């Protein structure tokens, strides 16, 4: 059994679309979605490239999760918590 971590750009309705795309693949055991960090963990016997291709066919922007995504998520949440708005190098985004 293999675990594949993906970074998927999504909003509320995209989670349903994501689950529908993955339901068509054989060998998927479990799908965990963390909408806040836009992280999706897929567990099963399907090949990681087939999983990526299925999500892309569903019209979602997707890439494999990397350690850099962990750092960006932690930095953004720390900046947001301390300033009340999201800031990167003195530029306000919200």
Automatic annotation (TrEMBL):
Matches recorded under Gene3D superfamilies: 3.30.70.100
Domain named HMA: residues: 1-63
Pfam families: HMA
SUPFAM superfamilies linked to this entry: HMA, heavy metal-associated domain
Family matches, as InterPro entries: HMA_dom, HMA_dom_sf
One GO MF term: metal ion binding
PANTHER family with a match to the protein in the record: HEAVY METAL-ASSOCIATED ISOPRENYLATED PLANT PROTEIN 20-LIKE, OS08G0512200 PROTEIN
Protein name: HMA domain-containing protein
Organism: Vitis rotundifolia
């Amino acid at each position: 059994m293999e675990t594949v971590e993906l970074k998927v750009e999504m909003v509320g309705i995209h989670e349903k679309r994501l689950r529908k795309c993955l339901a068509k693949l054989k060998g998927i055991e479990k799908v965990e979605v963390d909408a806040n960090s836009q992280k999706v963990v897929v567990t099963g016997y399907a090949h990681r490239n087939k999983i990526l291709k299925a999500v892309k066919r569903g019209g979602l922007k997707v890439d494999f999760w990397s350690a850099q995504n962990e750092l960006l998520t932690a930095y953004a949440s720390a900046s947001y918590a301390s300033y009340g708005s999201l800031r990167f190098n003195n530029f306000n985004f919200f």
